[in-house]
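Q: What would this chain look like folded?
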Amino acid sequence: MTTQGSQPELGLIEGRFGRIWDEAERSHVVKTLAEAGYGFYHYGPKADRALRREWRVSHDMARTEALARLSAECRAAGMRFGMAITPVGSTHPFDDEARADLTRRVAELDAIGIDDLAVLFDDLRGDMPELAERQADVVNFCAGLTGAARVYTCPTYYSDDPVLDLVFADRPADYLGKLGRLLDPAVQVYWTGEEVCSKEIGPAHLERVAGELGRKVCLWDNWPVNDGARMSRFLHLRAFTGRPAAIAGHISGHAINPAIQAHLGCIPAITLPMVYRQGETYAYGEAFGAAARRLLGDDFAQMLQQDIPALQDVGHERLGARADRLRARYEGIDHPASREILNWLDGKDLMTDDEVQTQ
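A: My prediction, written as structure tokens:
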């Protein structure tokens, strides 16, 4: 019996909706994940308008300097640093103006200091002609411009989940196959699994998708992310499940999309290396306990483990009187993670549909 698995390259793709972390929060995440064995950090929050809705507009000087500091911090911690741009409207038409704007913006991202460039098309409309062809054109064009060592993309249809067809229009026939055939073979493709937020990701599914794309995917794992009007009502705390170590040989990398709560989200984040390291001996309850004790100390960790059902399963609006009891429990703990719980109990970082639609 195999008790240990090989570990793919692990990373974080900061690709969620919602509040952008401040520098102190992001520094904590970088330090914690680097120490746990993560190898890359891709910056691309949906709320950074200069990377998404207003991608043709350069970051201001203060933001550029902050991103340069983040790049230096990631590299000093032994992690590759990447930035993700979602060039809305660049594919139709992919004309001289789009090429000029992409050339300028990629050069600006290169100047910040990137090891990886990600060109994303997730959560954009898919009812446009020759979608795969035009997206491949844009990605390959950017790949030819950048000095980054690696280039990634995320398709519009980044999962088998039919909710994508419902929200963004029916996916074109052979969309993945066309995209894979047209993309430069060196480009890595992000994929979330059978669902947008997959409960389980297995080797058979990954093999099928790799066959369509002509390459192994890099997982964009939507755990412990809790953005959006529905998920932000819950704190995602439990350790990773449904990702067997056996998938290591079927992927080019495994990146997680983080929770809004930077400190709390690090608890499940550092259980992912345990999944691969421990293989069939992995137990998610024990993994949570070990991760929480490491980051919070014994007493706080034990308290949090007791409260997982209330914080993760019940939902903010249904806590009722339990909210006051939880607030009383965590008010006496001087720790950033306890303050995140209190802020959540007070209704902070709860998102609306309007926020998602405008980011």
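The chain has a mean pLDDT of 96.
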